[in-house]
Amino acid sequence: MAVTVDDSTAGRERPVIADAPGSRSWARAFGDLSAGWKQRALWGHLGWQDIKQRYRRSVLGPLWISISMGVIALGLGILYSLLFQTPIETFLPHVAVGLLIWNFISGCVLEGSEVFIANEGLIKFLPAPLSLHVYRLVWRQSLFFLHNLVIWAVLMIVFPHPLGWSLLLAIPAFALLAINGGWIAILSGILATRFRDIPPIIASVVQLVFYMTPIVWSVDILGDNPAVQERARLVELNPVFHFLEILRRPLLGQETVWRYWYVVLAITVVGWGAGLVCMRNYRARVAYWV
């Protein structure tokens, strides 16, 4: 029995469909970051609402951010100035500005490790890029920082420092801190969704780093002691120290040390490289891991 084949469509040209980028692709990773940035009106509003919600029904509202920071800075500044026998007019601003910057850094690290876990409901039921939650986190921490700048302004009035044009370096310095907060949240947030032991480990490490970073103590004070002068220089092995100094020095009118900036720029490039690789390989799995 003969079988006939209908080849009436053999001569037709079939439409060519472009290959869509796979889940593990650089296009998807960069596309996520771009799409999240375009929704800045959304994460900007959500970040501000996070602060309002935290201080809901409070008389002073977000002013408690600055009040609590001011009380801690005043207490630690007076205590350690007496312990180290240093003038309070120089040491109190040193401690206060150090705490201000540290709160931003530690906030990005601690909350970054849980940025996707805390937004489990939105990730599962809202079709939004993952980077939206990262932008929201960095924006919220930036608002905290701006609130606390009131303390710096008060201290500069009470204890005047020779502020000059170098103060303008505080703007790119803070921008670098915020940029690094992004890759830290991406990297630690993705890892923490897969391994839930990561957040408590990070919390323990952050607490240890606080004491190893010259926030409530000063490298200059230790440098005056010949017995520990060489060991005091080991603080430069601490990457947080460099982030701290590029912003604290212009805010206090101190001389700019460019090697701190070079270290921060190198960390920024390497960190974002690691963050993008993690974003490329595991972005699609976060919704399942949370």
UniProtKB/TrEMBL annotation:
Matches recorded under Pfam families: ABC2_membrane (PF01061)
Domain of life: Bacteria
Alphabetical list of InterPro entries matching this protein: ABC2_TM
Signal peptide feature range: none
Keyword Transport: yes
Transmembrane segments: 59-83, 95-117, 137-159, 165-186, 198-217, 260-279
Keywords: Cell membrane, Membrane, Transmembrane, Transmembrane helix, Transport
Membrane topology summary: Multi-pass membrane protein
Localization annotation: Cell membrane
Domain annotation ABC-2 type transporter transmembrane: ranges: 45-248
Family as reported in the entry's similarity comment: Belongs to the ABC-2 integral membrane protein family.
Name of the protein in its database record: ABC transporter permease
Organism: Pseudonocardia xishanensis
